[in-house]
From TrEMBL:
Protein name per Swiss-Prot or TrEMBL: Tail tubular protein A
Species of provenance: marine sediment metagenome
Length: 207
């Protein structure tokens, strides 16, 4: 069965032994569970996507140069995509000299001295059918962690259960990252410059 907002919330509620909801999108559902789901779902989803370069959320873009220029320090500024969440890497051309491209992110702009800017980035993904299974697992556990206080009375046994599940999940995410990151391929070495993260990004954080 394809993932849905309702299914993800109910998986999280099930983790703490709470009553399920009928429909996440039904604003008329006023149960405490439904209120907590609507309160935390979008913020938690976006925070987790932004915390890690999930493959399902990677995208490419040739940035459009803004008509205005920075007041000082940088020569040009570029508009970031509307769905931009996190910088992954900058394209340096097919044949690269491995020179770092310096830049700064300020608000919705990328500031640089470069005359062109092609990037890979983590985009905002709202369709749950596009989520990676490991992301869904992390998402449900993180939601469950937030639900323990208001829906399970801060039960210490449930808290330990969720903490243990999160601790066991992270090695799987790290292992998958190692398998899917091709550090020898032409798109990961030389032509793409992950300058802000030293070539690799960190792993998802808890929220």
């Amino acid at each position: 069965m394809a993932e849905s907002n309702t299914k993800i919330c109910n998986q999280a509620l099930g983790r703490i032994g709470s009553t399920r909801i009928n429909d996440f999108s039904d604003a008329s559902e006023k149960s405490t569970q439904a209120i907590q789901c609507r309160l935390h779902y979008e913020q938690t989803r976006d925070a987790l996507i932004r915390s890690y370069p999930w493959r399902f959320a990677l995208a490419r873009a040739t940035l459009v140069q803004d008509t205005e220029t920075p007041d000082f320090e940088w020569s040009f500024q570029y508009l970031l995509p509307n769905d931009f969440m996190l910088m992954k890497s900058i394209y340096e051309g097919r044949f690269s000299s491995n020179n770092f491209r310096n830049y700064a992110l300020e608000g919705k702009l990328l500031l640089t001295d470069e005359t062109t800017m092609e990037i890979r980035y983590v985009k905002k993904v709202t369709d749950p059918t596009q989520f990676d299974p490991l992301f869904v697992e992390l998402f449900t556990l993180t939601l469950a962690d937030k639900f323990i206080g208001p829906l399970a009375g801060g039960d210490a046994r449930i808290q330990k259960k969720i903490d243990d599940a999160l601790d066991k999940l992270m090695p799987a995410v790290r292992a998958l990252d190692g398998q899917e990151t091709n550090t020898a391929g032409r798109f990961e070495s030389g032509t793409w410059n992950d300058s802000r993260y030293g070539g690799r990004t960190g792993f998802p954080m808890r929220f």
